[in-house]
Every structure is written in C-alpha cells, then in structure tokens.
Amino acid sequence: MLLGADYNEPKKSVNVMPQKNLRSFLARSGDVKQDWFHVDAADQILGRLATRIATVLMGKNKPTYTPHVDTGDFVVVTNAHLVRVTGAKADRMVYPRYSYHPGGYKEIPYKRVMERHPDRIIREAVRRMLPKNALGRAMLKKLKVYAADSHPHSAQQPAPLT
Questions:
Q1: Residue 23 binned pLDDT confidence (cut-offs 50, 70, 90)
Q2: 18 domain-assigned
Q3: How far is CA 73 from CA 23, 70, 96, 120, in A?
C-alpha cells in the first residue's frame, strides 16, 4: 500500500539517456596526427622526465588515446648529459648486458654510461616504461635523444613540452 504523494506521482522512465550518444571512439592508424615536442633535459630528474616522455610517446596525453594504435607524438630530447638522479643512484645503478655466451654477462655502472653515452640513459629509462611488444618498439623509434644542445629536427618545429 502506497501512502500520500507516492501513490499519486506518475512513474518515471528508467532510461533517460538517448542511445545514439553511447558510442566509443577508436583511433585508426591512418587518422592520427603526430606532433613534435622538444624537451631540455638540463637539471631534470631522470625518472620524472622519462615518465613524461613515455606518456607523450604512447599518446596518453591526448583525448584520442587508443591502446592498440600508436597515437603518440615525436619527442626530441637535448642536453642528455645534464640529467640528474637523486640520492645514491649514481653509485648503485647498473645497466646489465648479456651476450648469450658463457661468461658474457656484464654490468656497466651508471657513471661510465653517463660519460660515454649519456643518450642511452634516457632512452633506456623510457624504454622500460613503454609496452613490451611491437607497438612499444615503434613508439621508441619516435624518441630522439641528443647529448648536445643542438638537434637536426628544427625543420619539424618541435613545440616545447610543458
């Protein structure tokens, strides 16, 4: 038995939203417009910088992000030799390498890699944050890292990454 106003009120419809607006957007590889961004790595912390770069390479900063399509942008990094690490990581971090031969396992310390190939430090940090499949390898090809202040991609007019 219903009492008072509940009894006299008309019944409300359950489905209020129209069905035509419930479509999902999926990007296609031919429709994606890829921009160019420039990052100056001078006095930036390695992990935080690599996270921002990996997000842009994957395309997660765009509203058109689709997991199975490469919707990311190109990223140019300069001044890789000036990137910083916090704490005692400069003494403890190593980069392992294995030649698949007996006795072919080597661990190269961070300081030696930074002296000889500072661009590999940033590339490796970003690579570890990308998907571990063919799509991740394609995303990594869009990363251009240079130890010096200049780069050959000025024709693409990269915008600064904020």
A1: confident
A2: no
A3: 25, 9, 29, 20
